[in-house]
Amino acid sequence: MTYSVAVSGASGYAGGEILRLLADHPDMEIRTVTAHSNAGQLLVDHQPHLRSLAHLTLQETTPEILSGHDIVFLALPHGQSGQYTDALGDAPLVIDAGADHRLTSASAWEAFYGGAFHEAWAYGVPELLVDGVKQREHLRGATRIAAPGCNASTVSLSLAPGVAAGVIDASDIVSVLAVGPSGAGKSLKTNLLASEILGSANPYAVGGTHRHIPEIRQALAAASGTDPDGIRISFTPVLVPMSRGILATSTAPIASGATDAQIRDAWQSAYGDETFVQVLPEGRFPRTADVIGANTALIGLAIDRSANRVTVVTAVDNLVKGTAGAAIQSMNIALGLPEARALSLNGVAP
Fold first, then answer.
1. How far is it, in rounded angstroms, from Cα 158 to Cα 162?
2. At 107, which helix (H) or strand (E)?
């Protein structure tokens, strides 16, 4: 069976990455691409790397244009998806790459985003532990999927095994992330200009203000079966001069009585059979260069007994495993297709 697909926000980074992956998916036919200010222009004028899609013209983003497809991807800024998802009730499968359907708490949405709150959908991180099972079990047959925030899923995948196994203390998590500016979208912003970021590292959303914090707390609480209020995280992202990638360094205290073997076993047990989330051998740590273009998360684990903390270093491509790859992996599961279809395990080097 071939599924017809529409992609909104197709001129942006997330939309472009969704299209790049879908273009090589044998079960998908990309019929419609939409945008706002760029409507009426050729897709290839805004995504010149998508040569196989050069025949497509960007249309206006309206419910009428998006409807009538088997699958609709929404790659829009937060707060904009809801107006379309409300009107796409008849669409067989809708996948939101924005934040509108990620959070279960209306108060958390109000505190970090504001505006109209929309119900949470199945969370698009298949490997994430949720109440003793993997999230993929909740994605099978799903008709509405919320793709994750790239920073949020990276930190959640980093720490969920330890939280679920009770070998780390989730009340004192510290995460510092080196992130590429593509995660901030394609809109022109002074702080994202090359002259501002080249040769510099720039922290942002410091002091508990980043919008992915409630998403992380929600995911880790689900992994441990506890209240999100028990998950405390100091989260600091830092823009660095690389177009793609996240390198997340997360630490948490070792739980009382946890042995080194128990700690390592928590991560190996969680991800030992996974294709796209891999734990590196002891003493080895990933680079963002190892995952560029791939739907792969690489994890390095260190046990620091002198500080009584576990350190987890995780590398992902923010546009693939962090967004578009997670969305398509989740789509494959929902449709009963091979989970890895159209997704690369191998990065691009050098």
1. 9
2. helix 106-112
Active site annotation includes 88: no
pLDDT in the model for residue 187:
82
* Encoded amino acid at 33, one letter: V
Q: How far apart are the first and last CA of the chain?
A: 37
**What letters, b where the CB count within 10 A reaches 16 and e where it falls short, cover 308-329?**
ebbbbbbbbbbbbbbbbbbbbb
DSSP string, 41-75: SBHHHH-TT-GGGTT-BEEE--HHHHTTSSEEEE-
Confidence band (pLDDT; 50, 70, 90) for 191? confident
Q: Are 14 and 323 in contact (CB under 8 A)?
A: yes
pTM here is 0.96
Output the six-digit token pair for 167.
């070998």
Residues across the chain: 350
Q: Are residues 293 and 182 in contact, defined by beta-carbon separation less than 8 angstroms?
A: no
Q: Tell me the pairing of strands 28-35 and 93-96.
A: unpaired
Q: Which two tokens stand for residue 270?
A: 């969680």
Active-site annotation holder among 150, 239, 298, 320: 150
| Three-class SS state of 241 | coil
Tokens standing for residue 54: 């050069």
Residue 212, SS3 per DSSP: coil
Question: How many helices (H) does the chain have, and how many strands (E)?
Answer: 11, 16
* pLDDT one-digit tens code per residue, 298-335: 999 999 999 999 999 999 999 999 999 999 999 999 99
